[in-house]
């Protein structure tokens, strides 16, 4: 019933993931398994807007998740998306790798929904496994239990920041309206906070901003491609003229 916004082909799930020094946005986290380069460009735009308007990041650093930071790394999809992101008005830092996610190097991580969902579920599983592992190790002897009491405040802060109920859900960006996706096991606290996040998105005019900035980006890409075609044609004509003279 909502349909994608004009100028956008696919919506994307934007999951906010806490890191030691910042919170970064991962999208798409599972809405679109198969993507085209333009879709990744739009994810970059939507993620940048969400980071800026909701998370308060003034100039979000946008990166494409790849297997290397060089422009020629990755798949045909990520390489072409890299080229498109360079054409528009983004704080685009290029490719980022998995080990860049938690060292405050990037604020918006762009990928297709297949990769994004694997990253998200891996992080969720690791966080739960690490918490259980830490609990088991602490309970091994009284000295460790005493040490746990001394760092209780720090542990409580980490638990609060990594609690998925704090945000309550993830926005499905790119639709003609505000949609938040909650986990199937979400309780009252998560639903309450999810509603709060939706209210924030409405107050910050997220839908209208995405529509406007996506239209500007599409126009820039079209103009850049037109210039490239003109330059290519001029180069071909010059080579043809030189060949005719020889």
Topology record:
Elements (H helix, E strand, L loop, with lengths): L11 E2 L1 E4 L4 E5 L9 H17 L8 E4 L10 H10 L6 E5 L11 E3 L2 H26 L3 H9 L1 H11 L7 E4 L6 E2 L6 H16 L2 H40 L1
Parallel strand pairs: 3-6, 4-5, 4-6
Antiparallel strand pairs: 1-7, 2-3, 7-8
Describe the structure.
This protein is of the alpha/beta class. 52% of the residues lie in helices and 12% in strands. The protein contains seven helices and eight strands, in the order βββαβαββαααββαα. A five-stranded mixed sheet has the order 2-3-6-4-5, sandwiched between helices. It has a three-stranded antiparallel sheet with strand order 1-7-8. Helix 2 (76-85) links the parallel strand 4 (62-65) and strand 5. Helix 1 (37-53) packs across helix 7. The chain starts with 11 loop residues before the first strand and ends with a helix.
């Amino acid at each position: 019933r909502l349909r994608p916004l004009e100028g956008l082909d696919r919506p994307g799930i934007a999951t906010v993931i806490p890191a030691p020094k910042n919170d970064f946005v991962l999208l798409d986290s599972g809405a679109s398994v198969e993507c085209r380069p333009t879709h990744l460009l739009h994810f970059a735009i939507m993620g940048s807007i969400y980071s800026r308007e909701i998370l308060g990041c003034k100039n979000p650093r946008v990166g494409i998740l790849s297997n290397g930071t060089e422009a020629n790394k990755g798949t045909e999809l990520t390489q072409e998306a890299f080229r498109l992101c360079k054409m528009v008005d983004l704080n685009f830092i290029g490719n980022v790798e998995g080990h860049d996610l938690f060292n405050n190097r990037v604020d918006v991580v762009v990928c297709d929904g297949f990769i994004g969902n694997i990253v998200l579920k891996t992080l969720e599983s690791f966080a739960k496994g690490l918490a259980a592992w830490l609990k088991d190790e602490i309970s091994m002897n009284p000295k460790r239990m005493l040490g746990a009491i001394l760092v209780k405040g720090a542990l409580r802060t980490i638990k609060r920041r990594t609690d998925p109920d704090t945000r309550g859900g993830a926005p499905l960006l790119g639709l003609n309206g505000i949609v938040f996706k909650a986990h199937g096991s979400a309780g009252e606290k998560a639903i309450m906070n999810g509603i709060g996040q939706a209210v924030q998105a409405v107050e910050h005019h997220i839908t209208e901003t995405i529509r406007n900035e996506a239209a500007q980006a599409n126009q820039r890409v079209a103009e850049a491609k037109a210039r490239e075609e003109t330059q290519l044609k001029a180069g071909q004509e010059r080579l043809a003229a030189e060949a005719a003279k020889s």
